[in-house]
Amino acid sequence: MSMQLEHSYQSLETAKRPTLANRFSASILSGSVLRAIGTWTRKVRRLSIKQKICYGYAVTIAIAMVGTGAGLEIGDRYTRQAREQSLRSHEEQRLLLDLQHTVLAVRAQQEGLSASDGDDLERVEDLLAQLHDLAAALPPISGAVTPAQIAQLRAAYDPNPGNGDLATRIPPIEQLYQAIDRQIEAAKTQERLANETFTKAESLRQQITGWSMLVSAAIAVGLAVYTSRAIAHPIEWIVHVARRASQQANYKLRAPEIGEDEIGLLATSLNQLISTVQQQIQAIQTTQAQLIQSEKMSSLGQMVAGLAHEINNPVSFISGNIEHSSHYIQDLLGLVLLYQQEYPEPNPTIARRIEEIDLDFLMTDLPGLLCSMRSGSERIRQLVMALRNFCRLDEAEVKRVNLHDGIDSTLFLLDRRLKDKIKIVKKYGDLPAIECAPAQLNQVFMHLLDNAIDALEGIGTDESSRKMPTIVIQTRLVEDNRIQVKITDNGPGIDPEIQAKIFDPFFTTKAPGKGTGLGLAICYQIAQQHGGTLEFSSQLGRGSKFCLSLPLPERG
Questions:
Q1: Burial class (CB in 10 A: 0-12, 13-18, 19+), 104
Q2: CATH homologous superfamily of domain 396-556?
Q3: Is 65:72 a contact under the CB 8 Å cutoff?
C-alpha cells in the first residue's frame, strides 16, 4: 500500500511539471510561432527606444509576477491536495481505531460466551457506515480506504450472534480485526505521504518562484545590455562619421542606418545633413567658379571694348590711307612710265640710280605690297569684330542673333590652334534667328570646340597618319520647333566609366593646371537657362558627339 501511494504521488508530480514545459516547447517549435518571430522582430525594430525600454521592463516585471503567481498557485494546489489527503487519512485512522476498539470489545464478549452488548454492535455498524460514507464522499486517492474495502469489512461482520456457533463466528471477527489493522497502517502511510507531498509542494513553489525571479533578472540584464548596445553602438558610429566628415571635409561618408527608432532617424538626419552640406558646398563652389568666369568675361569684355576702340582708330586710319596711298603710288608709277616713254635714253646718273633701286622690281612688287597691307588691316578688323562678338558686355541681355555668327567668331579665335592640323567641316542648315544671351552661347561653343581640339591633339602619330583629325559642326532645325547644334570629332572618345561624371562640377581628366572641370558643367547650366538641353554620346576609338538643343520662340 505504501509503494502504491509513493508511486501515485510521483506520477502526479511528473505529470504536472513536464506538462507546462512540454506545452511551452511545443508552442515555441510550432510553425506559426516561428513565422510570427520574424514579424515580431520587424515590429520591434520599428519601436522607439522609449517603447523598447518600457515594453522590455514590462515583460520582465510580467514574467516575475506571472512566475511568482504560478509558483504560489501550483504550490497552493499541491498543498491543498496534501492537506485534504492528510485530513482524510487522519479521519480514517480515527474511525478505524474506534472501529478496532469496538471490534475488540465484541470479540471479548464473544470469547466470554456472553451476549454482545447491543450498543457495541450498533457502534460497529455505525462506524462501518461512517467509513463507507467517508470513502464514497471523498475523491478516490491511491492507498486510501475504498468503498469496496468497507463493503468487505461489513460482509465479514455478522451482527446477529444467534447465527452459527462460536467456532464459526470468531474467525470472521479475527479477520475483520486484521483487515482493520491493515487499513490503519495504510492510513498512516497515506498520512506520511501527504506530509511529504506538502513538503515537496512548498519546495516546488519556492523553486518556481526562484526560477521566475532568476529568469526575470536575466531578462533585465539582457535588456540592459541590449539597450546599451542598441543606443551606444549606433551613436558611436554617428559621432565617428560626424567627426570624420567635419575634420576631413569628406562629405561622402554616411552613417549606418540601423533600425527605425530614434537612433535610426538620427543617422538618417545626419546623412541628409551631410548630403545637404555636400550639395551646398558644391553649389557654392560652382557659383564661385561661375562668378569668377563671369568676372573674367566681364573684364575681358571691357578690355576688348577698350582695345577694339583703340585698335579700330589706327586700323581705320591705316586702311583709309592705304587706299589713298594706292592711288598716289599708281599716279607716281604712271608718271615714271611717262618719263621713260618721253626720255627712253636717260643720262648715266639716272640710269645708274634706276639700276641700284631695281625700278622694274619696285614697279611690280609695290602693288602687291599694298594689297598685303590691305589684307592685314582687314584681318585686324575681323579679329577685333570677333572679339567684340564673343565677349559682349550685355551678356545677360537676351537678343535675337544668328548662331552661325557666334560659331564663326569662335572658330576665328581658335584658328591659331586649328591651322592645318585639324579639319573643320561646316554643315550649316537654314536657321532662323534665336533669342538668347549671345556671350553665354559663344562660351558654350568655345568650351565644346576647345575640348574637341584637346581630344584631337592627343591622338598619336600612328593614328594621325591613318586618319585626318576632323571636327564636324552641324546645325539644323528639327520638327519640334527646336534648333540643334552638333559638334562631332573623330578623337579617341570618352571612357564609359567616366561618362556619368562628364557634367559634374570640378570633374576633369586633363592634367593639373590645364582645366578646372567647370567647362562642361557651365555649358550644361547655360543650356538649361535657355530652356534647352546638352547631351553627348561617345564610343572609344570613334570619337564624341555633343548636341546642343535650344527652343525657338513661339510665334504669336
A1: middle
A2: Histidine kinase-like ATPase, C-terminal domain (3.30.565.10)
A3: no
What stretch of H or E contains 476? strand 470-478
Q: Which residues pair with 471 in a beta bridge?
A: 424, 489
| Bridge partners of residue 269, in order along the sequence | none
In whole angstroms, how far apart are CA 413 and each of 103, 290, 387, 530? 143, 22, 8, 24
Q: 478 forms bridges with which residues in the sheet?
A: 482
* All cell numbers assigned to 417: 590652334
Instruction: Please give the distance of CA 367 from its chain centroid, rounded to a whole number.
Output: 80
Q: 427-442 burial string, b = 16+ CB within 10 Å, else e?
A: eeeebeebebbbbbbb
The 3-state DSSP class for residue 146 equals: coil
pLDDT digits (tens, 9 = 90+) for 515-524: 666 778 888 8
CA 120 to chain centre: 96
Element (H, E) at 489: strand 482-489
**Angle at Cα 394 formed by Cα 391 and Cα 399, nearest 5°?**
105
- Could you confirm whether domain 2-17+56-228 is CATH 2.60.200? no
In terms of Cβ atoms closer than 10 Å to its own Cβ (0-12, 13-18, 19+), residue 508 is: middle
pLDDT tens digits, residue range 473-485? 999 988 778 899 9
Q: Which CA distances in Å does 432 have to 263, 401, 410?
A: 60, 9, 19
Which amino acid makes up residue 163? N
Say which amino acid occupies 216.
Answer: S
Question: In angstroms, rounded to a whole number, what is the distance separating the alpha carbons of residues 87 and 176?
Answer: 24
Considering the entire predicted model, what is its pTM?
A: 0.45
Dist. CA 306–CA 241, nearest whole Å:
54
Pairing of strands 399-401, 434-436: antiparallel
Confirm if 427 and 472 have CB atoms less than 8 A apart: yes
Return the C-alpha cell found at 369.
605690297
* Strand duo 399-401 + 423-427: pairing: unpaired
Length of the chain in residues, anyone? 556
Of 293, 435, 316, 312, give the one whose Cα is nearest residue 385: 312
User: What are 280-332's pLDDT values in tens digits?
Assistant: 887 787 777 767 766 666 666 666 666 776 777 787 778 778 888 888 888 88
Residue 501 near residue 453, CB atoms below 8 Å:
no
Q: What is the dihedral of CA 107, 111, 116, 120, to 10 degrees?
A: -20
Q: Rounded to an integer, what distance in angstroms lies between the CA atom of residue 131 and that of residue 375?
A: 148
Whose CA is closest to 121, among 104, 109, 106? 106
Query: Which stretches within 30-117 are classed as H helix?
Result: 31-46, 49-111
Q: Which three cell numbers stand for residue 482?
A: 527646336
